[in-house]
Design brief:
208 residues, mainly alpha, Arc Repressor Mutant, subunit A, Tetracycline Repressor, domain 2, 2 domains, 10 helices, Homeodomain-like_sf, DNA-binding
Length: 208
Amino acid sequence: MTETEPVAVRAKRLPREQRRIQLLDCALHVFVAKGFHAASMDDIAEVAQVSKPVLYQHFPGKHELFIDLLETQLGQLRAELTAALSAHQDNEQRVTGTITAFYEFIAREDEAYRLIFASGLDNDEEVSERLDRFHDTMATAIAEVIVDDTGQPMAEATMLGHGLIGMATSAARHWSRLSERPALGVSAQLTSRLAWRGISGFPKENES
């Protein structure tokens, strides 16, 4: 990184959507590094090499910026999990793929998972609403697979879906905090085997 690079960024006028993406990327780095409460719009503007008025043209305030960024990251994680679910017809491979996707998201160098799982905004109504919607959407997607395969009632299958999401999240977050940790693939396989032992206990509909 050179001292001349920020000046070049500041001098260049970007299309509105491209600028918005750049601001979100800079905000991600600031929120991850400082946390929501310690971060400021000044910090984000400085990292983005724009004036505060330019930042406020795109986002009314820090909270709105965080919500927009949270939506972006949740959308990415949702897409990755959905792709993992649809990539296989074998349910054991689906479980492994879904849990591996959690680990891979948490292992990203940008540490975007902190916005979702460690923002310090657990009591914020707008944040909670979006997290609940994300978990409900993914639990329902998993439940639909369980229902198709086992004939389990949807309400019960949805509970299993939430359980799988919770297990994957908890295990992957624990893994990320270890100073000496197993390889990602090994850890994902261990978690997947545990989850599969539980889910496979429900017989297929044509085996009942």
